[in-house]
Design brief:
Mean pLDDT: 86
Shape: globular
Distance between the termini: 28 Å
Largest sheet: 3 strands, mixed
Number of strands: 8
Radius of gyration: 17 Å
Order of helices and strands: EEEHHHEEEEE
Low-confidence stretches: none
Amino acid sequence: MSRPKKSRRVCDPPKMLGFTPYGIPNCKIEQVTLKMEEYESLKLIDYDLRSQDKAAELMNVSRPTFTRIYNKALKTIIKAFVEGKGISIEGGNYQFDKDWFRCKKCHKLIEGIDNHTRCKDCKMFGTEELINLN
């Protein structure tokens, strides 16, 4: 019997749901999936410029596990670039530090239900128009 996987800690969800390549018609774009913890590993190392030891600690995983997650993320991104595929950021084995919601209409991110106010961008009201990202 295998050991149960621990959820990887992710601080913030990405602002976007993915990327599409420029110069290829939308109807012909194939997708690759970048898992949420893979996105977080790229953000911690390449954007926040953290060491792999610190990034592994922040994600609540071991250093070798972090390296595997990071290398898988790089392979996924490179495959999308070389083969002209879109990138969809979704799924994985993760848990956010806080509750996050996304507006169904304008996709604005909202940290915690207590912080929800009328969306200025799309004029939507109430919590029924929010998607819980947790």
